[in-house]
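Q: what sequence does this backbone want?
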């Protein structure tokens, strides 16, 4: 690698992160003849799938869909054992991609980026690492992930706990054996719901501390049917091409045509029952056109799921506590589970409703709730989520023009143009940043689509002998406004979700993902390019 007089290493593009986004960025930009390098905090590739190793961790998008689409050969070569990939399988796949496309030689592992500063005189980013290295490059890509900053709540007394505690998003690589232990799990989002049935299989006693009940549907996971796999692989070219015309970037689900309120209760329940048996969240949300836009329509689906919970969980009080009633179904990430509700029928598993009776403190011996009850525990699992969408970037001291930090810029909530760039931060790109549809889509599709857009933008700038690209403040403001208008036309803002920043005390409550659909987002990106990068300003 070349160095400047100060000893800093020089690149064309510095990439932060070697999860699926960072890996594809290396591949794509290298193909465009650029000198790139990714810096990764973990000791291997994989991002989310490297860190989240909790028992039961599994993707909620089907494995034949949740994969890179840039290589038809890769599509045909890889075989998934199950309908939904588990963490180990997906990590193996991502590692295979890194090896097959020789990506590792441009990755530096075990390296955390601490700062990134734009120099207005040279139009270069200077990035520093936690081991004292300095790297400079005209372009910087934040492939830092949306759910990559685990957060444990600040509960009084945690330091005094004599047992062990874990966070699902930072799970020990050697695994955890809960056999014979008394375990407490705090949090019932996707991570909690997926891990609870597995922990229950080992633990002597399991207490689940639930603040908010969530909607979970059966994944109906199982071995992948070889006939289905062969058919899907034969259809890959059309399916991959078709994904771009769908809201979630997943083809193969016929879009709904009717309102839930247009049909009889019998017909509706029969449809919901069929979707429940089929498994999967997209299929369920696609039952009717208005499940995410009309509260009345949504109530029919929400009540169907509540009745399912009541029919599965034998203890009526526990069943009622597990019934979500503070948000419409689908406005928080819909969870896919295997045997979650059934777990509460086991005699050694108990739900503790901390909405009614909050955790007062963690003691030497376990958890004490506000009513004075003590739960003696050997281990506590925090399944309490992440500082989503903005957390990872705010952990790096990113300074744009005039020394303004990303923390200053986003103090009232994130502002971006297309979720790809931020006004005031020239030549810095984000892969699936806030106000992009990333987290509301088949994530690998969105990562690729964003990286392709970024790679084209960089080529456009370089081809014109320009040295700086940045969105105009006007374009950014109007995209943020559009994002809010789209969100407000749906039921999404009714939920206290991580989409809203609601899970982090003090975080601005702004609906962050773009929910207008991947199809509309991609059309917008294409228009922007066709109009000469409309909304972006370029200079020499
Ligand atoms: O985190 P979450 P997650 N005291 O934020 C509770 C993706 N993902 O790691 O709802 C007590 O959803 C909190 O309660 P409340 C997926 O996109 C995907 O589970 O804030 N409880 C909630 O129950 C997912 O949406 C997969 O009241 C506290 C839980 O902790 C996203 O990651 C698998 C608390 C956090 O739920 C995040 O999921 C796993 C406190 N102080 C994750 N603070 C799949 O692909 C928080 N909670 C399937």
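A:
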């Amino acid at each position: 690698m070349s160095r400047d007089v100060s000893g800093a290493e020089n690149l064309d593009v510095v990439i932060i992160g070697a999860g699926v986004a960072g890996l594809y960025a290396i591949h794509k930009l290298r193909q465009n003849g650029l000198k790139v390098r990714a810096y990764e905090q973990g000791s291997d590739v994989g991002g989310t799938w490297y860190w989240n190793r909790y028992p039961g961790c599994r993707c909620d998008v089907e494995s034949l869909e949740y994969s890179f689409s840039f290589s038809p050969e890769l599509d045909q070569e890889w075989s998934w054992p199950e309908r939904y990939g588990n963490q180990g399988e997906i990590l193996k796949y991502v590692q295979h991609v890194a090896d097959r496309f020789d990506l590792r030689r441009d990755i530096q592992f075990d390296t955390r980026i601490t700062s990134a500063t734009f120099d207005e005189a040279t139009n270069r980013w200077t990035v520093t690492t936690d081991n004292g290295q300095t790297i400079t490059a005209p372009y910087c890509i934040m492939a830092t992930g949306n759910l990559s900053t685990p957060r444990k709540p600040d509960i009084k007394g945690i330091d005094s706990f004599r047992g062990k505690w874990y966070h699902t998003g930072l799970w020990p690589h050697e695994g955890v054996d809960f056999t014979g232990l008394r375990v407490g799990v705090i949090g019932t989002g996707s991570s909690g719901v997926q891990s609870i049935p597995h922990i229950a299989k080992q633990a002597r006693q399991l207490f689940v501390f639930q603040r908010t009940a969530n909607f979970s549907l059966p994944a109906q996971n199982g071995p992948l049917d070889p006939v289905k796999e062969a058919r899907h692989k034969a259809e890959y070219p059309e399916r991959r091409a078709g994904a771009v015309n769908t809201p979630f970037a997943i083809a193969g689900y016929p879009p709904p045509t009717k309102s839930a309120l247009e049909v009889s209760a019998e017909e509706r329940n029969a449809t919901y029952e069929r979707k429940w048996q089929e498994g999967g969240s997209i299929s369920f949300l696609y039952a009717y056109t208005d499940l995410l836009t009309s509260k009345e329509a949504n109530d029919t689906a929400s009540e169907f799921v509540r009745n399912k919970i009541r029919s599965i969980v034998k203890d009526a009080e526990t069943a009622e506590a597990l019934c979500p009633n503070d948000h419409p179904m689908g406005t928080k990430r819909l969870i896919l589970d295997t045997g979650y509700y059934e777990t509460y029928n086991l005699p050694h598993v108990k739900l503790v409703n901390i909405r009614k009776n909050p955790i007062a403190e963690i003691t030497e011996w376990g958890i004490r709730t506000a009513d004075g009850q003590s739960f003696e525990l050997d281990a506590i699992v925090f399944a309490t989520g992440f500082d989503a969408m903005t957390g990872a970037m705010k952990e790096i001291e990113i300074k744009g023009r005039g020394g303004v930090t990303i923390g200053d810029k986003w103090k009232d909530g994130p502002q971006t143009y297309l979720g790809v760039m931020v006004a005031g931060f020239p030549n810095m790109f984000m892969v699936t940043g806030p106000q992009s549809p990333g987290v509301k889509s088949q994530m690998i599709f969105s990562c690729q689509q964003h990286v392709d857009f970024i790679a084209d933008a960089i080529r456009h700038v370089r081809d014109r002998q320009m040295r700086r690209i940045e969105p105009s403040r006007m374009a950014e403001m109007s995209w943020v406004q559009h994002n809010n208008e789209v969100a407000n036309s749906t039921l999404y803002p009714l939920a206290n979700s991580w989409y809203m920043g609601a899970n982090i005390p003090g975080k601005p409550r702004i609906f962050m993902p773009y929910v207008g659909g991947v199809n509309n987002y991609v059309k917008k990106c294409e228009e922007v390019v066709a109009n000469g990068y409309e909304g972006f300003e370029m200079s020499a």
